[in-house]
TrEMBL record:
InterPro entries: aa-tRNA-synth_Ic, Rossmann-like_a/b/a_fold, Tyr-tRNA-ligase_arc/euk-type, Tyr-tRNA_synthase. This is tyrosine--tRNA ligase. GO terms for biological process: tyrosyl-tRNA aminoacylation. One of its GO terms (molecular function) is tyrosine-tRNA ligase activity. Belongs to the class-I aminoacyl-tRNA synthetase family. Its EC number is 6.1.1.1.
Length: 198
């Protein structure tokens, strides 16, 4: 909860992490995929397994996104998103010119695109400086902070790279009947949970 051990906690601040931890076991989750802001709850679940000699500790898979909106699927990119959905989500994504801190588009490039492709290719018109390939995040940031690289050029290039990464997943869901059926069931479950929240 970000509190010091000496600080006073309300009952809600004590019960909420316990309830989040209990959710992991109630759902029989093998993998807990949450944001970095939820990492402590995942660690609590794993420590509970150690303390109670419980087998099959959940695997922690923390993503870099600071906050996710549970009620807004457009705030995240999902493995099964089609090309048009990815393009639209990136087009709408928060990405102010010259601002690096808290910029999710730059985080996608740093943690996914650069490690995957070993470079980030930006396609630009000749008037905007022409195409450029960034081999390091530091070079990308310098160009972005100076204004040489604009979100209007960065976003389409990011969308293209993300769609390249996701294409094999889309093909898998198209060609494999079991995967397609599983995806349909997950979507039905997700929609019913979102309806319950409303």
């Amino acid at each position: 909860m970000g509190q010091s051990e000496q600080g006073e906690l309300s009952a809600a601040q004590i019960f909420y992490p316990c309830m989040q931890c209990a959710d992991i076991f109630f759902l029989k989750a093998d993998i807990c995929q949450l944001g970095m802001d939820q990492r402590e709850v995942n660690v609590l679940a794993r420590e509970y397994c150690d303390d109670n000699r419980r087998k099959n500790k959940p695997i922690i898979l923390s993503h870099r996104q600071e906050k996710m909106s549970k009620s807004d699927p457009s705030s995240s990119i999902f493995m099964e998103d089609d090309e048009a959905e990815v393009n639209l989500k990136i087009k709408k994504a928060y990405c102010p010119p010259k601002i690096v801190q808290g910029n999710p588009c730059l985080e996608y490039i740093k943690y996914l695109i650069l490690p995957w492709f070993k470079e980030f290719k930006v396609e630009r018109s000749v008037e905007n400086g022409g195409d450029k390939a960034f081999k390091s995040y530091e070079g990308l940031i310098a160009s972005y902070e100076s204004g040489e690289l604009h979100p209007g050029d960065l976003k389409p290039s990011l969308s293209k790279a993300l769609n390249t990464v996701l294409e094999p997943v889309r093909e898998h869901f198209k060609k494999d009947a079991n995967a397609r059926d599983l995806l349909k069931r997950i979507k039905v479950l997700t929609e019913s949970q979102n309806d319950a929240r409303i």
